[in-house]
Amino acid sequence: MQLPHDPSLDSTRAFFSEGYDWIGNRCRALGTDVFRARILLRPVVCMMGEEAARRFYDGESFTRAGAMPQTTLRQLQDKGSVQTLDGAAHRHRKQLFLSMMVGDPAEALADAFERRWHAELPQWRNQEEVRMHEAFGRLLCGAACDWLGVPLEGDALDRRTHEMLAMIDGAGSVGTRAWRGLALRRRAERWARAVVTQVRDGTRTVGEDTPIARLAGFRDLDGGLLDLRTAGVELLNIVRPTVAVARFLCFATLALHQEPGAAAFVADREPARLQAFAQEVRRFYPFFPVIGGRVRTPFRFREHEFGQGDWVMLGLHATNHDPRLWEAPEAFRPERFLDREPGAFALIPQGAGAHADDHRCPGEWITLALLRRLVPLLLAAEYRLPPQDLTIPHDRFPTLPRSELRLSFA
Ligand code: HEM
């Protein structure tokens, strides 16, 4: 069957200007949840919603190979990373990440974050204003490295933080931001490879069960250690996305100030409420607009035949705001998660489905633990928001309040 078609000859401009809202807008206009379009002059099928996510993240139908622009791939997961693997090789490598991150380890990373928050707070009080996106990024970079077993301080921590922030900032763009991200990535890769080399040859002593020891000693399906380049890539695939959580921390701070009832909702610091608040932050605020895949195993969906190699984009933000799934999707309502575990294909800011079998993010436990931890720290700190532009542009990926969130601590 012919799917509805976006009437534009090429939708690249609309995709970049409507941004996060493009897929949802087109689906509404065409009365569908799957449609065809052309982006960058290439045919693509776009889809949104729970059923589409179930299809996209079914563990076998899609590969990420050839589904993302090269500059995005290089700055995010990169060649040779777990995200570029399929089938048995992917499941095996994924276990490395899952074994590090599920449950208590996520709390340990949040503990490291909290220690660094307390260490930094007196210095923030001495500044007129603190740019929180960068400040959160530095705390998270330090916490991730403490947790991994490769602590960093001073200039080295500043350098790594800037490299990670630049890669995240450059991933969704072309031009100067992308080139800056790529240049700083090369410097970060040298650091990551040096760390793995030192751990392997014993010139850096690390605890036996630290995440870095596991990564350096991890053996792929063929029984061999990861080659040095790939091991460095996977090390960056832990530090960089942890620093990316800075955006969610900014959004959480914003929610406490802007969203009616949000601060009262978490005021008693009750764990179930902190968790519900953290989930709503991940649902409500924009992060990655879409995830792209290419069909690996042909299938039929909505009476349309998807052939091998077809390019498909699943709307992550559109699904998180799908009115079929969420009552009043444009309202910030943490209570919606109080008596409800979000479905594996409904709340999908970090991918969908089964973590072990598909590309769903292994960092979700860490992301949630950090968001839960931030709230009591903010509630206990005395600060104010100076006047600033807090609008969140929807045509920039990943986005951020225009002011990058500035706070004054008392
Ligand atoms: C800001 C918070 C985060 C967001 C929005 C996010 C988003 C995502 C998304 C959408 C995917 C799925 C990609 C796909 O389907 O191809 C993913 C995968 C991944 N994420 Fe995250 N992530 C975040 C935090 C983290 C953290 C904290 C870590 C590690 C500490 C992490 C590590 C990874 C890895 C290694 C993958 C690849 C998994 C695979 O291919 O099986 N992410 N992330």
From TrEMBL:
It comes from the Bacteria. InterPro entries: Cyt_P450, Cyt_P450_E_grp-I, Cyt_P450_sf. Pfam families: p450. Belongs to the cytochrome P450 family. PANTHER family: CYTOCHROME P450 YJIB-RELATED (PTHR46696:SF1), P450, PUTATIVE (EUROFUNG)-RELATED (PTHR46696). This is Cytochrome P450. It comes from Sphingomonas molluscorum.
